[in-house]
């Protein structure tokens, strides 16, 4: 569930001196200023799955939980589409402490949560054809270009919501990964109480974080494949074809009032319900809940 955690160290000077003096990291680099023969910022240190970034003002610790888990253990290796379990998360958290000097002096500033879910169809096809919008806005298609994956990413000031699937690996083709990256602490601190990485052992807090993922997931518009528009009543057919057009919602919000837009959204939702086009959405929501239960109980 927890994919990534970014924390900052409250005592930047103390932490910087410790990083430069320790042998715990595989690599430590900093800029060498040739002109005045001094060492400048940023300072970077790393082990597999965990990096440290130190600039003139702050020190950050970034941990990719699954990568970090794989680098430290010889068994129970996790692939991209394997979901981590609660016990594995706790073990990974324990292993981060030696790289933080004092974890109680750190504070989480970003966190990414997500799950892989199995699908009955090829994941790439679902993303291309069935996952249409987030909060009635289309994805930022030019931000992500990948030869290996199909990606739809929805970028907002406080969070990023991403869905992706593998293009070529047949063994994982029937999976999609759903991720919510909370890039501003306002998105999670007041709602979950999360302060430092050690609190991620708290199951109640993890449930609150999962509720944030589920809330954002419900803002997706996921529509079942429409094989034959002739099954629609004439007026419904015309409306549905309008609603499924890429530029329709952007144009609507530019030209009409919020009330009109709200009415149109409700009409679209009623049509999806009327013609039973929400089965994929319901299936994915149930699968997310199932994956969370498996995570929290193992």
Summarize the structure.
This protein has 298 residues and is an alpha+beta fold. The protein has ten helices and eleven strands.
What does this structure look like?
It is a single chain. By secondary structure, this protein is an alpha+beta fold. The chain contains ten helices and eleven strands. The protein has a nine-stranded antiparallel beta sheet with strand order 2-3-4-5-1-6-10-9-8. Helix 6 (203-217) packs antiparallel against helix 10 (279-296). The longest helix has 18 residues, at 279-296.
Per DSSP E runs of 2 or more residues, the count of β-strands stands at 11
Intertermini distance: 12 Å
Number of helices: 10
Mean pLDDT: 88
Element pattern in H and E: EHEEEEHHEHEEEEHHEHHHH
Radius of gyration: 22 Å
Query: How do the strands line up in the largest sheet?
Result: 2-3-4-5-1-6-10-9-8
């Amino acid at each position: 569930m927890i994919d990534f955690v970014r924390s900052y160290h409250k005592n930047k000077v103390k932490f910087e001196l410790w990083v430069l003096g320790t042998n715990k990291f595989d690599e430590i680099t900093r800029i060498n200023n040739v002109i005045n023969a001094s060492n400048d910022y940023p300072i970077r240190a790393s082990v597999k799955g965990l990096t440290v970034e130190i600039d003139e003002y702050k020190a950050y610790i970034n941990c990719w939980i699954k990568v970090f888990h794989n680098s430290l253990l010889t068994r129970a290796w996790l692939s991209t589409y394997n979901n981590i379990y609660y016990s594995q998360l706790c073990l990974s958290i324990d292993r981060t402490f030696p790289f933080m000097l004092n974890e109680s002096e750190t504070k989480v500033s970003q966190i990414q949560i997500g799950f892989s879910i199995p699908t009955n169809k090829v994941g790439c096809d679902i993303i291309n054809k069935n996952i249409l919008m987030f909060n009635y806005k289309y994805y930022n298609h030019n931000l992500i270009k990948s030869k290996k994956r199909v990606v739809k990413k929805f970028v907002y000031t406080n969070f990023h919501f991403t869905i992706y699937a593998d293009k070529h690996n047949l063994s994982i083709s029937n999976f999609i990964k759903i991720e919510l990256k909370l890039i501003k602490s306002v998105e999670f601190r007041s709602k979950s109480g999360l302060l430092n990485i050690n609190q991620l052992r708290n199951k109640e807090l993890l449930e609150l974080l999962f509720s944030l993922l589920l809330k954002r997931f419900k803002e997706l518009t996921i529509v079942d494949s429409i094989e034959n528009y002739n099954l629609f009543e004439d007026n419904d057919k015309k409306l549905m074809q309008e609603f499924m057009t890429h530029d329709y919602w952007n144009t609507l919000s530019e030209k009409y009032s919020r009330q009109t837009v709200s009415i149109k959204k409700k009409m679209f939702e009623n049509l999806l319900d009327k013609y039973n086009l929400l089965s994929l959405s319901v299936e994915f929501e149930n699968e997310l809940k199932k994956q969370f239960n498996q995570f929290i109980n193992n």
